[in-house]
Amino acid sequence: xxxxxxxxxxxxxxxxAVLDPSGTVLYQKVVKTDDLMKIIGEQLEACxxxxxxxGNGTTSQTAQTEIEKNYPKLELVEVxxxxxxxxxxxxxxxxxxxxxxxxLLPTSMQVPPEPxxxxxxxxxxxxxxxxxxxx
Length: 135
Known about the structure:
alpha/beta, Nucleotidyltransferase, domain 5, 5-stranded mixed sheet, 5 strands, globular
C-alpha cells in the first residue's frame, strides 16, 4: 500500500494530512479551501499517494467533484466524520500540551487556540487504514 492523503473538507479551510501505510504522519496542515487542489498536487509530488481519503461532512461533495476533476487517477474514499472533532481536540492537546495557566484546567474544558482540521484529517486517514487492515 502507498502513502495516503486525507482531507477534512470545509467551506473556508481544510485539514490535509499525508500518512504512510503504518499510520505515521508525513505531513499535516490546515489550508485555505481555495488552495486545496494546489496542496494536493504538491503532496502527490512530494510524498506520492494512490488514494485520497475525505470526510463525509457538509462540503464533502463539492470537494470530491473538484478532486475527481483535477486528479482522476487518484482513488477517492469517503470516510465517516462522526466524532472526529472531539477526537481531534484530544490529539491536539497531546501534541501541544497547554502552557501557563492553561495547565491548571482540564483539556476537556478547553478549546484549542487554533483550528484542528489537520488532526481530523489524520483521524480520517487512520480510520481508513484500520478498515483496510480489518481492525
